[in-house]
Amino acid sequence: MARKKETLTLSVPPGTKQKLEDIAQRLDIKWGDNPSASGLVAAIAQNEVQVSRNRLTLNAKQIKALRQATKALLDAGQVEDAETLITLLLDQENLEAPLRQALLQQMNQPLQSARNQVDEYIRNQQPFRLSYENSQHQELEFTVRYAEVRLYEKRFYLQVWCDQTEDSQDVPELRHNRCLRLDRIQGILPIEGEWRGSLDSLKVYLHFRGWLANAYEPKLEDVENEVLGNIRQVVRRVVNPFWLIREVFRYGKDCEIVAPDSVREQFKRELTQLYQLYEK
């Protein structure tokens, strides 16, 4: 026998029915393939959906901050805390559709943290093969024989020494070194072989002038720091010139890469390309 149903007629302002259906769509309350406003009302009445005036609503700035915190937690291997933040974000009605879709896709897949695996292999001095998707969506593989997790510009990266050098544009002395984003790692597998003792590195000589001669704050990688007249000479052990060049660009005319020639020439090429761009 068919179950009897009660009929409820509602008078609502224009556009309200569509808003109810949007909420039903988000909560997966449907009649057939379509979102059901009446099903949403029934779910509220049966306490299957909670309605509260005190629901937390985040603005765009707060949503952006939580997204950055989620990435940092995943990089640090704190998967459960990252899932908590993603759930909080998905509860926001004002979330843009592309971001909601990306978060839903992330939640529907297990949030496996590459950081946990990397930390274990580093502790055990275990070489590994790493599959990686770069910013151009190219699939790459690296045979890693040494690795460190390093903080660059407020984000953790995996700095590795690997066998592959064919596509590297770095200075010859550092072409075995790669800097990888943890969230782009697709998979890691242990391999046989020996673990290296360190990354390749170069001593880079920097001269700071003007206000920077006194204002410069030493970095952990600095191995020498002395004042020569009105110049501060800093010798830094560098494993990845990319980050050094970004830093020197910020300092402008008050910082000069003095040696070695390979790093100095790489910076000059960057400057030349920038100059040519603005000369057009």
From TrEMBL:
Domain of life: Bacteria
Domain WCX: residue ranges: 233-274
Annotated Pfam families: WCX (PF25583)
InterPro entries in the record: CBASS_pafABC_assoc_protein (IPR051534), WCX_dom (IPR057727)
Name of this chain's protein: WCX domain-containing protein
